[in-house]
Amino acid sequence: MTHPFLDLAPLSAAHFASIEDRVARLLSTEQDVVIMQGEALLPLEGAIRGAAGPGTTALNVITGPYGQTFGDWLRDCGATVHDLAVPFHTAVTAAHIREALTEHPEIDFVSLVHAEAATGNTNPVAEIGEVVRAHGALFYLDAVASIGAEPVRPDAWGVDLCVIGAQKAMGGPAGVSAVSVSERAWTRMSANPYAPRRSYLSLLDWKERWTDAGRRTLPHAPAQLEMLALEACVQRIEAEGLDAVMARHAAASAATRAGALALGAGIEPYVYEARDAAPVTTTLRTPVGVDASWVVARALAADPSLPLAAGGGALAKEMIRVNHYGPAATLDSVQACLSALRAALAED
Known about the structure:
Elements: H1 13-26, E1 32-36, H2 41-51, E2 57-62, H3 65-76, E3 80-85, H4 94-103, E4 109-113, E5 115-116, E6 121-122, H5 125-135, E7 138-142, H6 154-157, E8 161-165, E9 177-181, H7 183-190, H8 203-211, H9 224-240, H10 242-263, E10 268-269, E11 282-285, H11 292-302, E12 308-310, E13 319-322, H12 331-346
Parallel strand pairs: 2-3, 2-4, 4-7, 7-8
Antiparallel strand pairs: 1-9, 5-6, 8-9, 10-11, 11-13, 12-13
Helix pairs in contact: 1-9, 4-5, 9-10, 10-12, 11-12
């Protein structure tokens, strides 16, 4: 018995390295790119635990739930953490960052989420990067949701640790991820006695056993299906053109905001300003007294394939998420979602 997912030829070190190189080109980076054999939480946590410790003073920006998670990890590492939280319906600004760094000049690590798929906002990383670079702090960026939907340029923006995942705008697998690492970040990790070693979280293990060793022998058996799927989704982006993929996401975002306002019934964009809205997901606020999770459940009962979800946790009653990313970043998908929401809202 044969199956396309089984009995595959081994994935060679050269093939693995070639996929890393394609991801590096997608990021327009000359930094080392390490493909991690797990969902993006693996390099997100590994990068923080590798670069932060008891001597670290961090500015942790919170524009959604992932920023809150990063603060927890930093504190668990022993770092002194200054949280900078802004309302989830807006974005942080370079001025906010500059003010925080001026107030706490000892800050040497800044953590930020580029686009928060959970809340639908996106942050101006290019402008923030200039401020962080001038201050001299290490810059850590979660670009899992933004990669493929909007520009992500770690070298140009001074990002030292840039984590991406394939499962959102790239339209790829969830079980593999990557991080670009600057020389400054490697130096910080190498000097950190608390950085994970001989661990699945360890970026330094990959550096020493893989990158510095010439990428000739893999440290362990790769997640073969996920690596092949990552290669396929990067190939698809290359074929369509990254600019075209980003334009498709931007068009879906604009259409969703405009369509939601046209629906009436008190539905409005959760993120107030269009400039702060992520192109990967549009979040909508339901009117007072209308349960968002109920509306979403009604819409999905009519068509379970729609990329709709209620907000997480406390936001479940007031937020609807239209997840127009990857293959769903089309005007047809947006129209189908809005039509289903209109029908659900019209029900008693």
